[in-house]
Amino acid sequence: MIKIAGKDTEVSRIFYGTAAEPFQSGGDGNELIEQMVNLGVNAIDTARVYGRAEESVGRWIKIGNNRQRVTLLTKGGHPDMLWRSRIREKEIRKDLKTSLDKLCTDYIDIYLLHRDDPQVPVGEIIELLNALYKEGSIKSFGVSNWTHERIAEGNEYAKEHGLIPFAVSSPCFSMAVPTRAPWPGCLTISGDENEDARKWYIDSQMPVLAYSSMAAGFFSGRFKSDDYKGAKKVLSPDNYKTYVSEENMATLKVCEDIAEETGLSVSQVAFSWIYGQDMNVYGVVSTKSAERMKQNVDAMLKAIS
């Protein structure tokens, strides 16, 4: 565990992702969260647009008086259903208030803007997030799916005006290179074409909260690198189109070979890889299996030791 700017307590190097069932439908995730926390995963990743996930997490917090046991990360400012920008003060404040209510808390540890709107001056955004910080509703803040250039611009504005800068960034990142954006407006830092972004993160050491760190199940080990039909059965149609390519299947073969040599699982090889980068990486993982999360924890600990 290490610290993130604005956080007094240590944060696990793995965030438990709730963009999955039973959370998105508002189901009972109490036992799952307990299992993850008991494994040392004390950080929860959710968002205003993850269905009823915030409500599900909030139920666990309220029933067990569990607020102090976890670091809560949620996201707001996502475009509306017609994909119109909502990076405006009124919309962000509305999202934050709703998140606080659903999560049964009066503050968010790490608040991220889920998308960017380059038409909005970054200084306005920094000013707003600083205001929310001063009001006490958020303890630290950052962005998801923003370019590193835009983040750097925001942090330079903060420096020049004596304000708090962005503390974290959450892009898509894994061994696999998406052939397209996993969802509209998503940004990846995987692949040769994003080497400049990764260099910036290395130089700045800004925490990278890597979502889709297992490439949406591509590295689950449930199909082989030469089994395109098997991949189609395991992955959703969208994820199949996003991750199944000759390049990624070749990467999966490398994982399989390393797994055979080391006795690790394919997923452990892929997960430990992200922690072997020179960036300050945190993996976001969604799973219903405590055993699978334990494997992830073991792989992470081995990679950073």
Helix/strand layout:
Blueprint: E1 14-17, H1 30-38, E2 43-45, H2 53-64, E3 71-76, H3 89-102, E4 108-113, H4 122-135, E5 138-144, H5 148-160, E6 168-170, H6 195-204, E7 208-210, H7 228-234, H8 237-243, H9 246-262, H10 266-275, E8 281-285, H11 290-304
Parallel strand pairs: 1-2, 1-8, 2-3, 3-4, 4-5, 5-6, 7-8
Overview of this protein structure:
The protein has 305 residues and is α/β, with parallel strands linked by helices. The protein has one domain (14-304): TIM Barrel (Alpha-Beta Barrel). The chain is 42% helix and 12% strand. The protein is built from 11 helices and 8 strands. The chain has helices at residues 30-38, 53-64, 89-102, 122-135, 148-160, 195-204, 228-234, 237-243, 246-262, 266-275, 290-304; strands at 14-17, 43-45, 71-76, 108-113, 138-144, 168-170, 208-210, 281-285. Strands 6-5-4-3-2-1-8-7 form an 8-stranded parallel sheet, with helices on one face. α9 (246-262) crosses α10 and α10 packs across α11. The termini are close together. The model has no long low-confidence stretch (mean pLDDT 95).
